[in-house]
Amino acid sequence: MTQAGQNNPGRRSVLGAAVLGAGGVTLGLAGTAGAEGRQDGQRGRDDHGSYHALPVPTVVAHRGASGYRPEHTIGSYQLALDLGAHVIEQDLVPTKDGHLVCRHENDITATTDVADHPEFADRKATKSVDGVSLTGWFTEDFTLAELKTLRAKERIPATRQENTLYDGRWAIPTFEEVLRWAEKEGRSRGRRIWLHIETKHPTYFRGLGLPLEEPLARLLREYGRDKKSSPNFLQSFEPTSMRRLAKLVSAPRVVLLDAKGTRPWDFVVAGDPRKVDDLIKPEGLKWISGFAQGLGPTLDLIIPKDAAGKLGKPTTLVRDAHAKGLILHPYTMRNENTFLPADFRRGTDPTAYGNAFGALQLYFEQGIDGIFSDNPDTALLAAADFAGR
Length: 389
Description:
Layout: H1 3-6, H2 10-19, H3 25-31, E1 58-61, H4 74-83, E2 87-94, E3 100-102, E4 125-129, E5 132-136, H5 144-147, H6 175-189, E6 194-199, H7 202-207, H8 213-222, E7 232-236, H9 239-246, E8 253-257, H10 265-270, H11 276-279, H12 282-289, E9 294-297, H13 317-323, E10 327-328, H14 356-364, E11 370-373, H15 376-387
Parallel strand pairs: 1-2, 1-11, 2-6, 6-7, 7-8, 8-9, 9-10
Antiparallel strand pairs: 2-3, 4-5
């Protein structure tokens, strides 16, 4: 065990509490998901199994239980489901031969053992992805068969040393494999398994002749997840990707929003001058509500931080978005000090756990509908506390 682990017994004790059900609280929350209807802390409507039937606050497992397992692996998704997460996220990028695989980025240098494969040494390249120069190995330069020879590993080993225990255990999953896994788990658990599916860099990939939306829509239709009441959200940082998918399937859509001052890459390419600042104004929210059902803003758009990293005065985004009929699933809560607002850090070790429960309560108090978390067990316990107040 690392020194951080020795000084931080709370990390695994929190996980253990959730696995054991935390006295039934966490497992009880999980059981409310799906079409069974809502209990405490939920909206008073079922909506025939639509996203309105999910518990509020909804806990979205960010890249699976990525606080405990290498992200976007079946192991990470499985643990998130076992911990009780209401929804599990996938990020989609294409292979050279057009298959959709689950990786946070097409650059797989940090999340796989590709650098240890001499047969792929000549695939290393420098590319501009959404205006950012990157050097590494990219999914679009590999066939699916080639990618399947690689193994996943922890993306931030210096922060999550414990997770490196699982390096090499799982392959990169295809999205279709995840759909099959969700079907299997749904049958065994007697309920629908909710997914949060992101198209990554859709304009970039369309320019390469590897569009994401059409193959995604085909898979959703094949697996019966294309309806308005289907148990999944579609999401993207590029609004045009959601507008395109709105013409292909009826599944609910979420527009992701980066920091103020930034522009969605599709806007940059199209010469659209609007920034995130414009999209969070009432007129921008009204425009988004014309093709999407929700927002996924960075948490700083809910409560900004000052120069010292402490939380300031909440914005009106939650109220304004709700006025336009949009739900909000902001991102991302993590337990480690380095990711928490300065107000909620404990001690000086950036890898140690801070007061994540306190931060979650404050964000829940703003009226958000859900939250992305690397540690779904922590978020579920916080949601149970909030619902029980």
